[in-house]
Amino acid sequence: MRKRLKAVQKDWEQPVFNDKAATDANFEAMTRLLLENHEYLYAAIGSHNVRSQAWAIAIAQTLKIPPRRFECQVLYGMADKLAKAIADRGYRVRVYCPYGELIPGMSYLIRRLLENTANSSFLRQNLEERPIEELLAPPVRQEAEGRGQKGSQESEEDMGTRRHGDTENSSIQNSKFKIQNSSSPLPFINAADTDYANNTYRKEVQQALQQVRQQLGKTYLPFINGKYVQTETHVDSLNPSNFAETVGTIGLISVEQAEAAIQAAKAAFPAWKRTPAKERADILRRAADLMEQRRHELVAWMVLETGKVVREADPEVSEAIDFCRYYADEMERLENGVAYDYPGETNRYHYQPRGISLIISPWNFPLAIPTGMTVASLVAGNCTLLKPAEVSSVITAKLTEILVEAGIPEGVFQYVPGKGSTVGAHMVKHPDVHMITFTGSQEVGCRIYADAAILQPGQKHLKRVIAEMGGKNAIIVDESADLDQAVQGVAQSAFGYSGQKCSACSRVVVLEPIYDIFLARLVEAARSLNLGPTDQPSTKVGPVIDANARDRIREYIEKGRMESEVALEMTAPDGGYFIGPVIFRDVSPTAVIAQEEIFGPVLAVMRAKTFDEALEIANGTRYALTGGLYSRTPSHIERAQQDFEVGNLYINRGITGAIVARQPFGGFKLSGVGSKAGGPDYLLQFLEPRVVTENVQRQGFAPIEGVD
Ligand code: NAD
Question: What is the pLDDT of residues 248-297, one digit of tens each?
């Protein structure tokens, strides 16, 4: 069930069969494969289905396989007559019975009961005294097996499952929340991530990596007023897995070039504002299609420029595509506004763009975040300047190529790489800029918020600032948690992309009764993560972004050593900015490493006596971005839903990887100001609402100019 739901949620091919006959047919195919290879392996055919065992024997006879090269297996007491019949024919039979601890034994027994009493089970049908021809008939697969292509759409019923999760376990199901999209005629369809279990996709991405490697070292220039322009200063963007390798050289704009870009945006604004929303939306949709076509290539650039592993870079392409398509749909939804008409009076509520919009993006989601902020601003009708983080500017140059190819007009979108503290700050303070959309650290976000509030000479408006900032995200693990799930979810949330996600888990608060066992298991799970260059398929944890980040994280690790005890510290390879995962134990909730965002693979584990105390610790920072709970106690789940102070709360799953229109993303407190990205309120921030009221009672007509 879990595998099936996971595939549905990710829009992947079904990895399991939905139909019993298909399972039986597959069993027979596997039996043949095993027996055909009897020279290399010894097959054991375990089944109480007479046909399945007879099939094995028939193959053995046809292929003249010696009876001692395989065996049939049945459970003690379950198919005694079958066992005897097979043995009488001279074949080996092993009769087995479960043995061991009570609790695993009980779950085994329940599975057996479910299987054997199912209507489709051979044993059950046998008891019903079906005709022997029917019982022994070859299995026939049903036509619609539901094993579609990557990205294929599910039936309406399945769509429901995909969007709403496993409703069996969902405590939301009976609560006050309305299920999103259930009544909408066209629910949003997310782009599917690549299923790398499929060898074809693995090969394709490896080829893309080779091709991208051949393009390393090129120069990327700013794109101002429809042209790529030369610059006086440049910066090299290095591969964090191997800093001897230059991924690309970026031309950085000067203050004068920033000025030119702002003037070009002003000139382009009137026409872009009047461009119908549908036309603007269609440019975004074309950009989404281009990203889908260039998916593997974009993944390869992220692997090499920002040290992401393939499996983490691929969902980012999906997210960027989703942002384009979702905001395109959203703008079309908002375009018509609302009519609040009364007799004799029309009241039309509608939106207009704000004007010149500056986007300042971080490096850690080098494609999805700049794409989301930029396309939201553009589709709303704003002329938009994108200033990326210096270390991920090659990927944003690729985004620029895509937007240009999709047909964005001159001056409407401009790519203005530059140094944040100089040129970035200059544009923030510019009197002609109407809004700033920032994602990055709390320190820079607060600076921008303050700078934007100061009215500059000649400025005739107040600036709108959206600032998505950092987090110090906690996961609570209570004594009722499924530890297998919790250990895996915490390790993935803490060490995925070396902890460099704003949503990453950096604190785990564990209830006293399971603290020691949880910690021991977590340490082992983290120890098993492969650390290395991200173009290696076996790598789970790559490098951190640059030397500054590495040194800052190392300082935090030193502080951590003074404040608490190291439970795990892994050694790191040379050649790149690697830092092995570090786990600190028994960390005080007020310690520096429990309060400040480290943005690296460093995890603080804390102990709590009660659930209330755990919640208090989790809420005890300045941030409120993501949080998680592993629990099977309904009252704890309910408490967390109410009182866990985070923008995105995840229950019994990892806390990273938000999906557009499914988990709109963003925090509050010092984690940010603004509505959630990928949610229904986001675009409104890029628009100015207006109301036009007209008295439409008859009052005669004015003469039309030029007509007597
Ligand atoms: P950062 O704050 O150092 O830089 C972000 C951007 O701001 C860069 O483009 C940088 O050049 C620019 N900048 C720096 N100083 C500036 C100034 N004075 N004026 C104008 N622009 C300036 O952040 P980063 O290291 O790129 O990203 C990591 C941070 O981003 C982490 O704190 C992380 O939590 C946060 N983040 C938050 C979210 C979210 O959605 N809440 C998402 C991703 C990252």
Answer: 999 999 999 999 999 999 999 999 999 999 999 999 999 999 999 999 99
- What is the three-state SS of 602-660? EEEEEEECCHHHHHHHHCCCCEECEEEEECCCHHHHHHHHHHCCCCEEEECCCCCCCCC
Mutate to test the pocket of ligand 1, among 374, 392, 502 (most ligand atoms within 8 A of CB): 502
CA dihedral 162, 164, 168, 173 (to 10 degrees): -170
What's the pLDDT score for residue 498?
98
Residue 424 alpha carbon, nearest atom of ligand 1: 20
Q: Using the Cα atoms of residue 433, residue 371, residue 496 and residue 636 in order, give the sign of their dihedral.
A: positive
**From the CA of 306, how far away is ligand 1's center (Å)?**
15
pLDDT at res. 17: 85
Instruction: Please report the domains of the chain, with CATH numbers, ordered by start residue.
Output: 20-141 (3.20.20.220), 199-469 (3.40.605.10), 473-669 (3.40.309.10)
Per-residue pLDDT at 687? 98
Per-residue confidence (pLDDT) for residue 163, from 0 to 100: 29
| 468 in contact with ligand 1, CB cutoff 6 A | yes
Mutation to probe ligand 1, out of 312, 360, 396, 660 (largest number of atoms < 8 A from CB): 360
* CB of residue 258 inside a 6 A radius of ligand 1: no
> What atom in ligand 1 is closest to the CA of residue 597?
32
- Could you list the active site residues? 468, 502
Q: Mean pLDDT score of the chain, rounded to an integer?
A: 92
Contacts of 290 (CB under 8 A, 6+ apart): 402, 405, 406
pTM: 0.86
Coil, strand, or helix at residue 409? coil
State which H helix or E strand residue 209 sits in: helix 199-213
Residue 304 CA, ligand 1 centroid: distance in Å: 20
Ligand 1 near 441 CB (within 6 A): yes
Q: Which of 20-34, 89-103, 196-210 has the highest mean pLDDT?
A: 196-210
Which helix or strand (DSSP H or E) is residue 583 part of? strand 582-585
